[in-house]
Amino acid sequence: MVEGLPPGFRFYPTDEELVVHYLFKKVASSSFSVSVITDIDLYKFDPWDLP
After folding, report:
1. Where is the NAC domain (predicted)?
2. CA-CA to 40 of 20 to 30 Å: which in 17, 22, 23, 51?
């Protein structure tokens, strides 16, 4: 991994990197060191219009 970049910072993060380093912190309401995952209201979009 390149020094200084957060875990999973590449085009295809692994499932483990997504769960351990990002989603677990999101569920636990912890702060992210980097805002990679954006919150959106899925009910406001049709699937083909998701940002």
Report:
1. 5-51
2. 17
Q: Which pair of structure tokens corresponds to residue 46?
A: 């049709």
Unique residue bearing structure tokens 């805002």: 35
How far does CA 31 lie from the centroid of its chain? 12
Name the region of 6 (left: φ>0; alpha: ψ -120 to 50; beta: rest). beta
Q: In the chain, which ranges are continuous DSSP H helix? A: 15-17, 24-27
Entry pTM:
0.40
pLDDT in tens, 1-51: 456 777 777 667 788 888 887 788 777 876 655 566 677 888 999 999 988
